[in-house]
Specification:
One of its GO terms (molecular function) is sigma factor antagonist activity. This protein has 370 residues and is an alpha+beta fold. The chain is 28% helix and 34% strand. It folds into 4 domains: 103 residues; 93 residues, no CATH class; 73 residues, Sandwich (Jelly Rolls), CATH 2.60.120; 73 residues, 3-Layer(bab) Sandwich (Phage tail protein beta-alpha-beta fold).
Length: 370
Amino acid sequence: MTKDKIKLLLDKYAKGTCSVEERQLLELWFEQQQVINEESFSPQDKGRVWRYIDAKANPESIKKVRMPVYYRWAAAAVVLFCLAIGGYFILQRQTLKDSATELLANEILPGENKAVLTLSDGRQIALTPNNAEATRDQGVVITKNAAGRLQYKIDPNLVTGTGYNTIETPRGGQYEVILPDGSQVTLNAESSLRFAVNMQHQPKRVVELKGEGYFDVTKDPRRPFIVKSDQQEIQVLGTVFNVNTYHSSQKLTTLLEGSVLVNKTQKLRPGQQARVEADRIVVKDVDVNDFVDWKNNSFIFRNENLVSIMERIGRWYNVQYTFKDVDTKKVMFNGEISRYAKVEEVLHLLSVTSKLDFEIKNRTIVISNQ
């Protein structure tokens, strides 16, 4: 986490206003700091070592008292012993810090708000919580608001050209964006959204989606909002819906509010989901909460197979996975857990509800039968 994010969470924690997810993130960060800042010397030990060093460097500061030879030998032995012990603990502390660095490099953390904005001229801007950079692109001022969302403000006197901007989230990232027309889009991990810079001046508001996005579209009866993806086109006037295009074989559109038209033929009402497979559309009633769980910072598994679950875990925690036993792919699960839980907690939930083992090797999860 960035320093600004840590400072914000610490302040909220002190005021008792942290959400469950924020508290889990803060506690996870605190555990890491305990490893990094682990001290091998107590303050008293450090004081004694420095006094020995000072005495060796400044012998005149020590009152000269003649001692028997054996006392002097004993004192010398004590100094050598302390220096040896000090050197040992310094070496151990460095080893501990090296181990902690390696541990944190392989630490599997939940995803966070991050993305990359590619402007129409090819320039790229990293969108992270501590990046307050503002830029202008063809009359559009791109900034981040107090909530961390990317926001576009258009100066109609400066808008020129027909360029496109693209926002892309990596594995282990998600991002909320406010489009030029005021519509809000939340991108899940490993997703992208492409749209025209001059969207406000076009008869149709067209965006192109890859991956998964949650849309809250601003109503404008004169200019329909259209979401395009491979094998699918969704037309709306103003509504709330989720689109999942991760799989090439099927595209899912889940409607929460309003109405949409899928591929110009199939109209949905709230609580329905359209599954597009090639030129076929299958519509069914669903519990929409199961399909927007990621937007609500949760994993909800409803009779879901392990392959699908591991795909979601892999994207969010930015990890790889492998099935040691092929038959484990068909195991079905039901359950619910926070997306900000440690990956070990998620895997434990899956393990206790099945007869499977989940072993983490570096950043790869190995799945096998018990």
